[in-house]
């Protein structure tokens, strides 16, 4: 059960099917174009969508909005330092700002950033720094159905080869958990080995630690030798392996805005701090209000509580089991922040060019007011100049991200019921075709329309 009770509630809209059909049409069949008042259950993102605790709200009232040297900064810094052990801690407004600042200081044009899987913004910031992002997920990640416990691991053989050259590697980034790779965790054994290989080549080893607590929990549950450790101890052991970390605190600090860049190297920190001041804000606020810094400090303590993490993992497992009982495949084993539906398998009557993942995301909205995002050929596929899909994505998935402390078990059971209803006649779900799409980040802006089944 959830280890909290509800003190403040927010009504959620429940539209009729006809209203949802009209809303989807008006949105150009793109869930990103829907408004909050049209959505019953929003599973688009787990980022910045969590519910604050009473303690966080109380801390916010103590927010010190002094421009330089605010008390709130020191509380934030101490919370991050005691969690991570890093000496130099820069607040930023969200994770991608930390990426931009760090990669700007680390990556020279032509160099590589190597990762288990770069998150989209991480990849974009590598490219903006003139580098190339290379993903080296472990081979087990390719089998969506297997229960291998750590499919978020990096391929150690491929990492060693990449570090040998010929192209220079500027940084190795381990994303924990691996959001781009199905939300799968990274084992401590893999982190230790990757850190050792990377160090041997004198290359900085950085964690993208947005979901550090969830990774720690899954290590405790799944990795031999770690079951008697606390989430704080596991998280600290991971940070101890790294030269620094970037983190979006909109996930595992359960706040609406915030991030950090934390480093050991004082010279690198000084260079990053100059860019921070120029682009985010003074080093003691970095684009955040004092009240944000206070809420982060409290959230970082709350997120490592075993009762909270157990309930969060339990929500994902419960939803996963109901979905599978309805005969719908997910990427296994279930992680914690999101479940990934195998839309390609469920809507096997559709070709990749009919965007089965996107079609399922549209249907989830029309059938039940559930909003979620496609991770398939609409997002990752490549078309030629005539608009014909020439390179489909490897998988046609739909991501159901689960906001922290926001929805109850019965909300998630409702989601499973809607999925089960769709699964009774999947062949009635129409495919989609592109009507208009900008060249960059098209999944955010494109418009599509249903094609007759
Ligand atoms: C693994 C990972 N890294 C970085 C980011 C970027 O963080 P932000 O959205 O705070 O800029 C995200 C956001 O979803 C993420 O999941």
From TrEMBL:
Keywords: Lyase, Pyridoxal phosphate. InterPro entries: ArAA_b-elim_lyase/Thr_aldolase (IPR001597), Beta-eliminating_lyase (IPR011166), PyrdxlP-dep_Trfase (IPR015424), PyrdxlP-dep_Trfase_major (IPR015421), PyrdxlP-dep_Trfase_small (IPR015422). Its cofactor is pyridoxal 5'-phosphate. The keyword Lyase applies. Residues 42-417 form the Aromatic amino acid beta-eliminating lyase/threonine aldolase domain. It comes from the Bacteria. The keyword Disulfide bond does not apply. Belongs to the beta-eliminating lyase family. This is Tryptophanase. The lineage of its organism: Bacteria, Bacillati, Actinomycetota, Actinomycetes, Pseudonocardiales.
């Amino acid at each position: 059960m959830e280890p909290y009770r509800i003190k403040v509630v927010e009504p959620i809209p429940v539209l009729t099917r006809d209203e949802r059909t009209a809303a989807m049409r008006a949105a150009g069949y793109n869930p990103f174009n829907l408004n909050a008042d049209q959505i019953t259950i929003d599973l688009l993102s787990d980022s910045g969508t969590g519910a604050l605790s009473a303690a966080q709200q109380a801390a916010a009232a103590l927010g010190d909005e002094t421009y330089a040297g605010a008390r709130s900064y020191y509380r934030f810094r101490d919370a991050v330092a005691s969690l991570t052990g890093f000496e130099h801690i820069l607040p930023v407004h969200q994770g991608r700002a930390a990426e931009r600042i760090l990669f700007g200081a680390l990556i020279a044009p032509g160099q590589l950033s190597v990762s288990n899987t770069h998150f989209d913004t991480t990849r974009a910031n590598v490219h903006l720094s003139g580098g190339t992002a290379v993903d080296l997920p472990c081979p087990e990640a390719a089998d969506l159905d297997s229960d291998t416990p750590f499919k978020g691991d990096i391929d150690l053989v491929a990492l060693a080869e990449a570090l040998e050259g010929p192209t220079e590697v500027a940084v190795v980034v381990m994303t924990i958990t691996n959001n781009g790779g199905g939300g799968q965790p990274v084992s401590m054994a893999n982190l230790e080995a990757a850190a050792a290989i990377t160090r041997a080549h004198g290359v900085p080893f950085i964690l993208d630690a947005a979901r550090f607590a969830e990774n720690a929990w899954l290590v405790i549950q799944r990795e031999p030798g770690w079951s008697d450790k606390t989430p704080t101890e596991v998280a600290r052991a991971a940070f101890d392996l790294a030269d620094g970390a970037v983190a979006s605190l909109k996930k595992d600090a359960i706040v609406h805005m915030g991030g950090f860049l934390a480093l050991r190297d004082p010279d690198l920190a000084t260079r990053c701090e100059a860019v921070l001041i120029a682009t985010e804000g003074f080093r003691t606020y970095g684009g955040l209000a004092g009240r944000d810094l206070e809420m982060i400090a409290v959230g970082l303590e709350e997120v490592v509580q075993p009762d909270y993490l157990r309930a969060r993992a339990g929500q994902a497992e419960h939803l996963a089991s109901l979905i599978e009982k309805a005969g719908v495949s997910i990427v296994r084993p279930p992680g914690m922040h999101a479940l990934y539906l195998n839309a390609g398998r469920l809507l096997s009557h559709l070709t990749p060019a009919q965007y089965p993942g996107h079609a399922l995301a549209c249907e989830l909205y029309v059938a039940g007011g559930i909003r979620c995002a496609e991770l398939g050929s609409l997002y990752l596929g490549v078309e030629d100049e005539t608009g014909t899909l020439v390179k489909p994505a490897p998988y046609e998935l739909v991501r159901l991200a689960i906001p922290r402390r926001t929805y109850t078990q019965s909300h998630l059971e409702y989601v499973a019921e809607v999925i089960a209803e769709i699964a009774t006649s999947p062949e009635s779900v129409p495919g989609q075709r592109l009507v208009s799409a900008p060249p960059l980040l098209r999944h955010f802006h494109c418009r599509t329309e249903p094609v007759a089944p």
